[in-house]
Amino acid sequence: MAAFPTNEGDSFSSSTQEWDYDVFLSFRGEDTRHGFTGHLYQALCDKGFKTFIDNEDLQRGEEISAELINAIKSSMISIIIFSQNYASSTWCLEELTEIIECKKNGQRVLPVFYKVDPSEVRRHKGSFGSALTTHEKKFENNREKVLRWRAALCEAGGLSGWHIEDGFPEYQFIQGIIREVSSTKLNRTKLYVAKYPVGVDSRAEVVENLLDIKSNDVRVVGIHGLGGIGKTTTAKAVYNRVADQFEGSSFLMNVRENSGTDCSIIKLQEQLLFEILGIKEVKLHNTSRGINVIKESLSSKKILLILDDVDKLGQVENFLGKCDWLANGSRVIITTRDRHVLTTLEIDHLIYKVVHLDRHEALQLFSKCAFKKDKPEADYLQLTNQFISYANGLPLALQIIGSDLHGRNIRQWESELEKYKSIPNKDIQKILKVSFEGLDKNEQDIFLDIACFFKGLSKNYVMDILAACNLYPDSGIPKLIDKCLIRVQFDMLLKDGVLDMHDLLQQMGREIVQQESNEPGKRTRLWRYDDALEVLTENTGSDEIRGIMLCSHKPTTVTLAAKAFKRMRNLKFLIVHNVHICNELKYLPNGLRFLDLPNYPFPLPSNFCPHKKLVTLNMPRSCIRLEKLFKQEFQFQNLKSINLSGCESITKLPNLCAPNLEKLDLSFCKNLVEFHESIGFLDNLQHLDLRFCEKFQNLPSHLTWTSLYDHDFSDCPSLEFFSSKDYYSWPLGEVTKINGLCAYRCKNVVDLEDIIDKLPPTEILYIYTGKSKIWYDSPYDQGSQAFLDLSNVQNLDLSNVGNLIELDFLMKSDYFPVLKHLFLNEINIIIIPESITKFTRLETLSITCCKYLREISRLPRSIESVLILNSHSLHPQSSNRLFSKFGESWQPRRNRFDIERYQVILLGSEIPKWFNHQSVGNYISFWIHPYPPKIFCCVVFKPESNEPSYIDLQVSVKLNGIQLCDSSPAGIECPME
């Protein structure tokens, strides 16, 4: 595995800077010590500010002492009181020079112009000009010193401060100074981030990049993620890094929790004004007034505002209104569990989703909590890994569990691990449950159904089922995604998005159901095998139950109560896996939406009429009698999917009366002979699987499958519609869109060229028909001039075409313009020609068991994945050229974090020498230049046994602790030599 190193410093957030003094006072003693400066010093001390003022008896010379320099450097704020004789003191000017130098390092400098005009200080006029002239004569041999004084006076004279003239009450100015010092101290005081802020700095750096502090625009940045993932922690770290670059800053914690009433909102508004302006006395009587006061008071200041844990747009508006008044350079950070809040603000490009801790970070955080060190003790390593897997990268869980296990012995650890699997930690659940409690009833039901039954299933598949339950998934599922309660991940095998959620969220959802009742029969959902079996064998079900999953880890035979489902009139989901029911059920609820009952050896109950609600019927390898279920008087309007694979009792598919059917799987129905003519009129049918239907002979004479996307007739030796006598009346003629046609080992297939000419526009073309010849020349039928439209073909499979020895015929300019995936397995080609580069959109190339292949000339720039296995004749130069040419296609994108990923799999036993970073094991780290280069990762592995096997290979790339990309696990065949 290749990865970028994480600097050890990334494991700890920036530490709080310790100041010896809040304020350093620089002044001319003879002018103001016993007047204004004395009063200011006393007021500061009375307010609790630690203030440095030099001793009146301090021995003075030409140079200020090291003690004074240290006092200046260790002060948060310096207040300079410019008075008539300030510049006449070289001591004061040396102090000033040191203060201006400290200003460059972030010290706050506040000037007070006491009865002198700021312009005299800045332009060296009046008493300041006279004093400097005197100093120039005195230090004519050290003019650089006087030049430094002049520069310091010029800079300090241009700073914003207070101008006190004769006749003005000095106490009012002192109050203003106190407020500014108070506000500055609040802004400069670092926030406590975390006891063990592992990985926080790397995440804060990403947010800081989004803030782009140097730009002068107004910017709102969102931090989004699951509860307990570290949103607030990241925001605190960002605050500590950048707050001192603003004129004022405020961090409002727990906005959601503290916005329940007008009074609580007003308190937050007052807190905001106090933290930025230092004004305690402001009393706001209503939220509307508060919004306007905030706007009027802060519109001229460059501010940093962090609103933590927001869950509604109105909570942002309570402080910022329309966000249209913020001064240039201001920044707002919003942390939320709900992405929709951020998208409503139209800041999609400025949202950071906090990522889970990777394995290394999780191990470090857990070890710090459980062992008070970076690594676990050797005896605890295996258990540590199990707890880390349970927490699944969630910092909250790692901290709580690790701290709870600290100081306990191995036996106690083992007991806790088993307990956590069945009884979740209440502190973790409390945090995670906040998002759930913010959902409406429909959304809660969707979440609980997914947590209990549908995690890992196709999103579209589940949405059809939930829609039939009147749960409105089109709006509900996007809301769950926005709130980080579920996610959709693309599954390469299903070629579809599947629903997923964090393991602890699933456990939280199931625990919510578990708490509904101590009696399983009175809960809404049953997924635990023991609970479901108890209800079904003891007949203790009730109307409360809406779903049952009876799934065993090992094959099990059970006897259920014959009328176990009689009381479950609201049952919507029945899922049975790896359980053989050995008695006939006498009743099933008619309201079932999802029936997953494989291997059921009996007919369905005669009184079972699910036609009004049923969406999915999964009964593979069962003894279903279709004519009993699909009666002519019933219309299955909601039925979308039927899986009857391996049902040997089916000889003819009857009229299904299911006009909205999309998927029909009849594979391995070895006694199936024909379809009812009505099947040809299923206009919404998209997927048809007839593999290994050995006796199947004919499709309906007329087809209107206008939605058909792919179908598979592999190993249907009796299928006659491909025979030459039926060729010119081929029933697929009215099919307008085919994603894929597979006719592997169909004995009655005519020459493939003729078949292709009959195809409608297609996206996937499978041409592996065994003995058939492959077409070489024009795709025109010379007799009818019918044209084969190849403009939409994205997937082309030429596997197993035994007489195919060259590919040039594919390379004509008008062939396959959008081809993405090319499969050339088990064919006799000798060379992959350079003309393959004409496929400018090709992403995947698979070449396996091509025993004569010797050369690969070039690959198109678009290529992303190449698989070459068991092609032993391939010249070594081609392998090396494959890597080097592969790299030429890489072009850096504008977004430096948008990583191109490529995959090449070759048969070999060593890493090529030109890989300049090599290691043994599953981890490698190395330093890189400021911008990510091309990265090739070569992994050499071999199976553990002499038998053919598969491995899952996944590559993760990190840069300074930031997860740049995580490849999907690749299942790789490990063939025998």
UniProtKB/TrEMBL annotation:
Keywords: Leucine-rich repeat, NAD, Repeat. Residues 19-185 form the TIR domain. The keyword Electron transport does not apply. It comes from Quercus rubra (Northern red oak). It holds the Pfam family NB-ARC. Gene3D superfamilies: Helical domain of apoptotic protease-activating factors (1.10.8.430), P-loop containing nucleotide triphosphate hydrolases (3.40.50.300), Ribonuclease Inhibitor (3.80.10.10), Toll/interleukin-1 receptor homology (TIR) domain (3.40.50.10140). One of its GO terms (molecular function) is ADP binding. GO terms for biological process: defense response; signal transduction. InterPro entries: AAA+_ATPase (IPR003593), Apaf_helical (IPR042197), Disease_R_plants (IPR044974), LRR_dom_sf (IPR032675), NB-ARC (IPR002182), P-loop_NTPase (IPR027417), TIR_dom (IPR000157), Toll_tir_struct_dom_sf (IPR035897). This is TIR domain-containing protein.
